[in-house]
Amino acid sequence: MRKKMYAAMLGLATVGAVTLSSGGASSHGYTDQPLSRQKACGNGGIVKGCGSIQYEPQSVEGLKGFPGRGPADGKICSAGNGGFSALDQPKQPNGTAWPATQLSGGQSYNFRWQFTAAHATADFKYYITKNGWNQNAPLTRAALESTPFLTVPYNGQRPPWTLSHSGQVPSGKTGNHVVLAVWTVADTPNAFYACSDVKF
């Protein structure tokens, strides 16, 4: 009888673990067009010394509701995850500029996400820094334009493994900027954040 009860309890524990692992924690993704900081750091990427983000560039997850809620100013690029704090720094760990994708103001561009696990999705939003923003400090809300330049509703659907959004790059930008992409999950309290350095 004891053996049967133990087996039943073990079975329930296993089912519970599977159920938990299929929730929000299994939902991950990052942008690679334009190249995000986490992708640049990830999987033996072109930026070294980033810490634990190199093993899980898809895991930059924080509270949703940006800009009203979400990660604190100065911790937006890491989504407030202390282990990913290298992403918040204005320069890469070796002290040089982050790799930047070349863009032209007003051009059409395919913003691309890569997913390691799909999740029901509310929307995707893309923000960009203002002209004259402080490039020598971690990203803040005040440094970003107040409204996204591209919003893609997703109505609770699950994205494929690779998803591109065609949109127009804002005009009137010069020099170095950061594009912040926010993937808002529909059925958890969280969103995924990706900062990409770009140059006009």
TrEMBL record:
The keyword Chloroplast does not apply. Pfam families: LPMO_10 (PF03067). Residues 1-27 form the signal peptide. This is Chitin-binding protein. Residues 28-198 form the Chitin-binding type-4 domain. It comes from the Bacteria. The keyword Signal applies. Keywords: Signal. InterPro entries: Cellulose/chitin-bd_N (IPR004302), GlcNAc_Chitin_IntDeg (IPR051024), Ig_E-set (IPR014756).
